[in-house]
Amino acid sequence: MFTMLTKTILLAGVPITNQTLYHRIRFVVGDSAAFIEQIDEDNRRQSTLLVRDIEMDRARKHARAHRVACAADFKPESGLSGDRDTALAQAVAECLRRSGVRTVTTDRTLPYIFAHHVQQAGIGIEYDGELGVIERRVKDDQEIEALLRAQSMTQETMIMACQMIARASCGRDGILQHDGDVLTSERVRRTITRFLIDRGYSAPHDSIVATVPHVADCHHFGTGPLKTGLPVIIDIFPFDEQSRYWGDCTRTVVHGEPADEIRRMHAAVVAAKQAGIAALRPSVTGEQVHHAVAGVIQQHGYTMSRGSTRGDEDSPSMRHGTGHGIGLDVHEPILLDDGAGEILKGEVFTVEPGLYSGRFGGVRVEDMVAVTDSGSRILAPFHEGLDWK
């Protein structure tokens, strides 16, 4: 039997889009669901998952919860609304009331419809901005394997795309041709998307295939014909439909011979990435990792110019942080950037320094890196040069 309750946690939303709720229950459903976890003074836990009635059997087989129920199991005296989401929120409030709960703790993702009905039942709500965050930051072995799988597919796709550019033919005007047609950023991007879909992955956000002049804006998706001698940044971040984890990798490819300045930029970016990975270990801060990267960029004669997208014609610069956490979302806490806090064993980050210029073009090289007991390791390392023939 439970002794006195010390805390009740409430998470709610649609698990297919609310990744904190999904991470807790590991059950995919496209309708609203709610997870209630009661914790007693001996730290024993009892959880209830509320889902649609037609999802109950599947949830009992697959969801991480002690009990599965539906809205009809907690019908208040006033009855349930005919609106499905409202009815579930009413049932959550009634479930809490019957359990004698006076206050619940919730996270940053709780939809207001649930907060409203819980409060209407006279139950207080306490907000915990870190609830679910640490749990998602620190990956278990299963999650690391899922990320490795996604990154391996990203790598396979990257090789295909870079070779498509590197092996293209070139007209007298310097514009690349592939299978008799002009090779554009859009065409490469469509090829990437088809390649991923055929292998059980999707690209909810378009891949980046960018060259001069758009690459001066380091998150421009890229548009127009690709040309020989100019660097093309390719950033691919696919979603694994099976595991629900993401890949994220960037490489730079040049058709033909790169200019000396691009070679220098590439050498600086690769050295900065190596410095960032070497600095990435438990107990250091994300800010320290970013400063290690920035220091190498500056040692190579380049500058940091945060907030700029104009593209300094003469001075390529790095215009963003070093990287970000990754998992069930492609961008997760914490950042590797100014002000970032302590790094934990089991976290997974991207390390992605880059240099950008509207005149010379851009170079970015990005790997996914897992934090180990004493350092870090690249997940699925592979070729990082400019030549992909």
Q: Which features characterize this protein?
A:
three-stranded antiparallel sheet; 9 helices; about 400 residues; alpha+beta; six-stranded mixed sheet
Task: Give your account of this protein's structure.
The protein is built from 9 helices and 23 strands. The protein has helices at 19-25, 56-62, 84-98, 112-120, 133-137, 141-166, 185-197, 260-279, 286-299; strands at 5-13, 33-40, 45-50, 67-69, 103-106, 124-127, 169-170, 176-178, 181-182, 201-202, 208-210, 231-236, 239-240, 249-254, 303-304, 317-318, 323-325, 332-336, 348-351, 354-357, 361-364, 367-371, 376-379. A 6-stranded mixed β-sheet has the order 4-3-2-1-5-6, with helices on both faces. Strand 20 and strand 21 form a beta hairpin. Helix 3 packs across helix 4 (112-120). The termini are far apart. The relative contact order is 0.11. The mean pLDDT is 95.
Largest sheet: 6 strands, mixed
Assembly status: single chain
On the 0 to 100 scale, the average pLDDT is 95
Number of helices: 9
What low-confidence regions span 5 or more consecutive residues with pLDDT below 50?
none
